[in-house]
Structures are given as C-alpha cells and as structure tokens.
Amino acid sequence: MLARFWGTRGSIATPGPGTNHFGGNTSCVELATASGAVLVLDCGTGARLLGDRLLAATPGPISAAILLTHTHWDHIQGFPFFAPLFQPDNHVRVYGPEGAHLSLRDVLAGQMEHHYFPVELDQLAARISYQNLREGTYEIDCARVRAQKMNHPSPTLGYRIEADGRSICYLCDHEPYCENIWREGPPPVSIESIAEEGDRRHAEFMQGADVVIHEAQYTPQEYPSKLHWGHSTYQYVVELAALAGVRRLFLTHHDPSHDDEFIAGLERKAQELARSLDSKLEVCCAYEGCEIAL
Ligand SMILES: [Zn+2]
Ligand SMILES: [Zn+2]
After folding, report:
1. 238-274 in b/e burial notation, b at 16+ Cβ within 10 A?
2. Per-residue tens of pLDDT for the chain, all 294 residues
3. From 109's CA, which of 17, 60, 195, 223 has a CA 20 to 30 Å away?
4. How far, in Å, is the centroid of ligand 2 from the Cα of 174?
5. Centroid of ligand 2 to alpha carbon of 267 (angstroms)
C-alpha cells in the first residue's frame, strides 16, 4: 500500500511562497493498494491534482472510492474539480458520515448549486454512487475500513484502513474530548489511565497501526483561544499515538496562519516530545507530495 499527500492544509487553501514546502492545498490523501484499488481520503483542493494524475496515468476507465471524513469546505472543495467525475465510463463511489440534516449527495450538490459553481452535480458524466456511513466496519474494494466518530462540530468519522497486511489511520478533524488538553498533571502511562473515555477510545482506535495520519492544527499555546473549533494540538496527538504503540505518525491539516518555518519548528517540538516519551514513535509533519510506503 502506498499513501501520497495531495493536500496538507486545514481550513482554507493557503498558496504562496511561505507555504511552498508543506503545501497550500487542503486535505486530500491518496491510498493505492497492491491490487490497484484507489482510495481518496477527503476531497480538499488537493484532489484536483490527484484527479489529473489519475487521468494521465490510467489507460482505461477509472474506478475510485472517495472517503470523506466530513463535509466542511476544506474536505470537499476539490470534489467539483476532480476530473475523473467528468468522464463517462469512470466509476466513483463516495462515502461519508451520516448525521447531517441532508444526505451526503445533497450536501455535495449544494456546493455545486449554480450560485456557487457552473456545473451541477447531476451534470457530472461519471457513474457516481453515494453511501452514508456510521460507526462500523465496511469492505471497500479490497480494503477493510473501520469508521469511528470523532469530536468535531460537524458529524465526522475517522477511518482505519487495512489492506495488503498493513494498517493506516486517517484522523481529520478531531479535538480532544478533555478540554484541558485532556489532562492535568503528568501524562498517562497507558491507554487505560486516560481519564476521558472519548480520548481513551480515540487512542484505542489507532492502537498498533503502522501509520497514523492525524490533524494537529494548533500548538498547546494556541489551543486555549480555539476551544470547540474541533482541532488538536501536536502534544495531544503525539502523546496518544505513543501510548497506542503507533510506529509512524504524520501530522497534517496545518493551520493557514502557520508558514513553512513555523511548521518546521512545530515538527521539531513534536519530535522532541516523542523522544522524551521513551517510545518508538517516529513523527513528522506531512508535506504535499510526501509518500508513505507501507
Ligand atoms: Zn478541516
Ligand atoms: Zn472540519
């Protein structure tokens, strides 16, 4: 299995010289399995480039599954620009969480309504299906996909995907359940000792994963002024991943106000923290074009 980042930015696309390294496109990760299945994790603006590459690299019809964590703009704005949707013979299956007052299809159609976009959803030429997901386990192409709710202002699912004998978690967007950066005093020494049940469940979900991709939009210093916006700090994510025995952690969904220099500093702090926890966890900040061979 190969994972490739096409969008690493949270909230809004942030192009410019200050974001050239870590990237300005919003959330999108491609997963390619050994059998040739293509899973697209979120459809932020990075999905435009992914769609173009799929068209260029695939001689016949394209079959792809899009797994949306939720339908905030930075996770769906690339959908109307995903070129495989415009060609007949292609087959795209879209999955996302149920729980909004509209169906997944209607939410996606809303952003393509003529006030916002010149092509309406029904005009897309590809064969497209939509399926609302809830917590549970699904077989999608040759992958086993587990979905679990996350703590975010909109109904949001995290995914744990197992294929080719490997496991990868994609956890965007999520805020600690415990407001006080999930604890006071020293960090817990095991998953069982995490005080808040939701955080314990979140750690269990990533337990033993080969790779975890997790949002880490804020520093611990920024977090108190961003309560209930639905995002994590690198400290929370690194501590949880270390307790969960994760091998490799990729921090993503970078804040639009963080330039490359700032994110490189955040990465160093996250790596220092991981080393101090006496774990085998390797951590880095994801950048556009970054590839993970599993
Ligand atoms: Zn987001
Ligand atoms: Zn969101």
Report:
1. bbbbbbbebbbbbbbbbbbebbbeebeebbeebbebb
2. 999 999 999 999 999 999 999 999 999 999 999 999 999 999 999 999 999 999 999 999 999 999 999 999 999 999 999 999 999 999 999 999 987 788 999 999 999 999 999 999 999 999 999 999 999 999 999 899 999 999 999 999 999 999 999 999 999 999 999 876 655 667 788 999 888 899 999 999 999 999 999 999 999 999 999 999 999 999 999 999 999 999 999 999 999 999 999 999 999 999 999 999 978 899 999 999 999 999
3. 60
4. 8
5. 22
Cite the beta strand spans of 141-233 per DSSP E. Answer: 143-149, 157-163, 166-171, 211-215
The strands making up 291-293's β-sheet, listed across from edge to edge, are: 127-133, 91-97, 63-67, 38-41, 28-32, 2-7, 291-293
Of the listed ligands, the closest to the CA of 152 is 2
Q: Record the tokens describing residue 66, joined without a space.
A: 């899009």
pTM over cut 0.90: yes
Ligand 2 centroid – CA 276 distance (Å): 30
Instruction: Sort strands 166-171 and 211-215 into parallel, antiparallel or unpaired.
Output: parallel
User: Are 34 and 164 contacting, i.e. CB atoms less than 8 angstroms apart?
Assistant: yes
Q: How far is the CA of 268 from the centre of ligand 2 (A)?
A: 25
Q: Which two tokens stand for residue 242?
A: 């270390």
